[in-house]
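Quick one: structure for this chain?
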Amino acid sequence: MGGAVGNDSEVDWTTAASATSEGIYNCYSEQDGVLKWLYRMANAGLSTPAGLVPVPHGVEGVVNSDFSNLIGGHNEWKANLGAVLDRLDLGRDTLLEASTVSAAMEAEEK
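Got it. Here's what it folds into:
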């Protein structure tokens, strides 16, 4: 999962995708107002964030998945993680693994 990641560099996407055994799933929602407005304002409109639009370059190893009909806003991803993983056909084992990682990260922050 990435955050505040620009979407504009084909070289960066190619490099990232080649560094993973399973590739990258670019899950996005055009309904994400935080990415649509705040990210763009924060970086002066210099790039479009991943998570708002598909990776436009057709990069090998990157799968674009539009969740605009499920995710109506930035804060809806966590609540819908199970449905996202199901649609990506990644299964509940991945959800449990992601939850464990997320809990560990939250514990480290405290």
